[in-house]
Design a protein that fits this description.
The protein has 183 residues and is of the alpha+beta class. The chain has helices at 45-52, 70-73, 75-78, 96-100, 111-124, 128-132, 151-163, and strands spanning 2-8, 20-27, 60-63, 82-85, 94-95, 141-142, 169-172. Strands 2-1-3 form a 3-stranded antiparallel β-sheet, with helices on one face. Strands 4-7 form a two-stranded parallel ribbon. The chain is globular and about 55 Å long. The model has no long low-confidence stretch (mean pLDDT 91).
Length: 183
């Protein structure tokens, strides 16, 4: 639920420079609801997405998830329940599988179950067959002197990461920006 939410441009150094990029946003979503936000470039869509996932906090108004603020939830508690695909994808040095699993391998006791969840997310994102064609499949190391993915491949891996572990909330910021027609 958002109630009269506003956000100033984050690069404002002084109160005199402060420029509202979002103002008066109010809406509420229930389980199963969807919301599409459309608008021209620089209209605040990405800023809204960043607030919804807790990367940015509103400067005015209230943003609550199940009645609690992001601060009350805490990142560790809320993170597994939110699937986020940012507009600008950042995959971290590591394997394709580790990136999809959000580097949770050390937290999971059952490696086979983790692998099943990674493959399921990749299949939902339409990335499984593409990943299987990579030099080492899900164990292909990306970046940091490893294999370099195309923009479309990275988009699919990032979408699989957002879908990993069946989160309850999905925030997708231009999810098809680097995909081909099939994607």
């Amino acid at each position: 639920t958002l109630a009269n939410v506003g956000k100033y441009a984050p690069n404002s150094r002084t109160a005199a420079e402060a420029r509202l990029i979002l103002q008066g946003l109010t809406f509420s979503l229930r389980p199963g609801d969807g919301l599409g936000v459309v608008g021209p470039s620089a209209s605040g869509k990405t800023s809204l997405a960043r607030m919804l996932v807790g990367l940015w906090m509103p400067d005015m108004g209230h943003l609550r998830i199940d009645g609690a603020t992001h601060q009350q939830w805490g990142r560790e508690m809320l993170g597994p329940h939110v699937g986020y695909l940012p507009q600008n994808i950042a995959l971290l040095p590591g394997t394709i599988g580790e990136n999809i699993a959000r580097f949770r391998g050390s937290l999971v006791k059952n490696k086979a179950e983790l692998d099943r969840m990674v493959v399921a997310a990749a299949q939902m994102a339409g990335a499984h067959d593409m990943i299987q064609q990579l030099p080492n499949g899900y164990d292909t190391v990306i970046k940091s002197n490893g294999f370099e993915l195309s923009a479309g491949q990275a988009q699919r891996v990032a979408l699989a990461r957002a879908l990993f572990a069946d989160p309850q909330v999905f925030i997708l910021d231009e999810p098809n920006s680097a995909l081909d027609q099939e994607g």
